[in-house]
Each structure stands twice: as structure tokens, then as C-alpha cells.
Amino acid sequence: MAEALRTGFPIKRALVADAERARDAGLSQLVAGLCAAGVSVEYVSQDQLDAISSHGAHQGIVLEVGAFPYAELADIVSRSGDGPALVVVLDHVTDAGNFGAIVRSAEVVGAAGVVIANKRAAEVNVGAYKTSAGAVMHLPIARVPNIARALEELKAAGFWVVGASEHAQASCWETGFEGRIALVMGSEGDGISRLVLESCDDLTKLPQLGVTESLNVAQATTALCYEWLRRNVESLSGARGREAM
Questions:
Q1: Residue 184: exposed, middle, or buried by beta-carbon count in 10 A (0-12, 13-18, 19+)?
Q2: What is the distance, to the nearest Å, from the Cα of residue 112 to the centroid of all Cα atoms in its chain?
Q3: Cα 8 to Cα 68: distance, rounded to the nearest angstrom
Q4: What is the rounded CA–CA span in Å between residue 16 and residue 145?
Q5: pLDDT tens across 56-83, in order?
Q6: What 3-state class would DSSP assign to 187?
Q7: Which CATH superfamily is domain 2-65 in?
Q8: What is the Cβ-side half-sphere exposure of residue 201, based on CA atoms within 13 angstroms?
Q9: Average pLDDT for the chain
Q10: Residue 127 and residue 42: Cα distance in Å, rounded?
């Protein structure tokens, strides 16, 4: 919650357990910050917070937030600069836990942003915020009406579109991951849709020796994000070193 305040996430009001505020110095400090930011603070009973929070996991405070400030696709393209960059594109991933974990991995490897569909897809909510460990606050997330059209815009910005599919011929170790990559991950049940698949420049898959069917979409995305980082880390380090000079 301190991260939400620090990053300017739209907070409408805060409900604070009256019994907790006097004995929790950290909570008192957070409340002071909310008041300084002009957020309305209301003191309520512990039972009231228990009733409105998920499984009573509120640590003495619950925030009522406004709509998440989604980015435009153009914002992500601008953030990607001119050199190596990664954009993770989710073709109707629906589970909030998977979505949050994907955003976390994308942010950790330095991706320029995440693109999601504006219908029939997970969005930024409390579950996604928790599973992303707050990464949704630090990485642009764009909602688009048409994933295939968004991929064409990314291609125009110099991105090579790579789709993750179990039907791919080459593993990620053999696929070109250098430079500007738009990594497309499909939904939990159906994978990448036909139209989006046709928009991909290349397909890839994770190498597998065991007998389990596959990793889930969040695990697979993490592995592929790190393969992109491994291929580009020297170029990225050099570019950031020049920026710091």
C-alpha cells in the first residue's frame, strides 16, 4: 500500500482499523502519508475491515482505489527506445494470478511493457497487484481492442514477433531472441488464437525432457523473458552505461 501511495496510484479513500492505529507505528506513518497526499481516511472497526477484505488479510488498512491508469500502446513503443527491447503480449490470458506473475517477470527483466486485450482477459485488480508484488505500478500495461492489430503496430516499430507454441519446430535456444522482441503468450486453455498466430514472425517453445505436459503460462513466460535477457544483457548493459555517462 505504501507502494501505491509512492507511485501515485489513484486512491479514493482509506479505511483504517481504529484499534490498530495506536499500536502500529508503520500503519501510523502510512496514514500520515495518505493524509498528506489528500486521501480521505476513515477509522472503522476491525470487524468491518475483516468483512470487506479478502480472507481478513488487510493488516489494519484497506484502500478504495480508482480505475487503473492503463497506458497506450504508443507509450510502450516510446519507452522501448531504439535498441533491444521486450514487449510481452498476452492473447487473452484470463487468470489474475498468472497475469500478475507475468507482469512481475516482465518488469524484473526490464521489459518495455505488457499488452493485453480489453475484453475476455485478466485486468489489473487486487489479485493481479498482489501476485505481481506491485510490479503493475512500475511497468506500462496497455489494453487494446485487437491483439493482431497491436502486433502489426509493434512490427512497424521494429519488433520481431515471436509466439510461444507447443507446435513450434525450434526451441527458445534456437530461436532469434536478440534485439526488439514482442513475445506473444496464449491463453491458459487455448493457447494463441489463429489470427494472432498468423501475425507472428516466428514460433518458439521451451525444451522439455520430462513427461509433464507443459509449464503454465506464467512459468513459461518467465523462462522466455530470461532467455531474451540472456541474449541481450551485454547490449542492454552497454546502452545503460552510456546513458549514465
A1: buried
A2: 10
A3: 11
A4: 38
A5: 556 788 888 778 889 999 999 999 999 9
A6: strand
A7: Ribosomal protein L30/S12 (3.30.1330.30)
A8: 17
A9: 88
A10: 24
Amino acid sitting at position 122: A
Q: How many residues does the chain have?
A: 245
User: Cα separation of 168 and 220, whole Å?
Assistant: 14
Cell of 21: 492505529
Phi/psi region, residue 118 (left: phi>0; alpha: psi -120 to 50; beta: rest), is: alpha
Strand 61-65 to 11-17 pairing: antiparallel
How far is the C-alpha of 245 from the C-alpha of 242, rounded, in Å?
5
Instruction: Give CA–CA dist 4/65, Å, rounded.
Output: 9
For residues 45 and 53, the answer to whether their CB atoms sit within 8 Å is: no
Residue position matching grid coordinates 497487484: 129
Domain ranges, ordered by start, for the chain: 2-65, 73-244
Decide: 17 and 51 in contact? Cβ < 8 Å: no
C-alpha–C-alpha distance, residues 178 and 227, integer Å? 10
Q: How many whole angstroms from its chain centre is CA 116?
A: 10
d(CA 9, CA 7): 6
Q: What is the pLDDT of residues 188-243, one digit of tens each?
A: 989 999 999 999 999 999 999 998 888 999 999 999 999 999 999 999 986 655 45
Q: Characterise 36 by phi-psi region: left (phi > 0), alpha (psi -120 to 50), beta (else).
A: alpha
CATH of domain 73-244: 3.40.1280.10
Q: pTM higher than 0.85 for the full model?
A: no
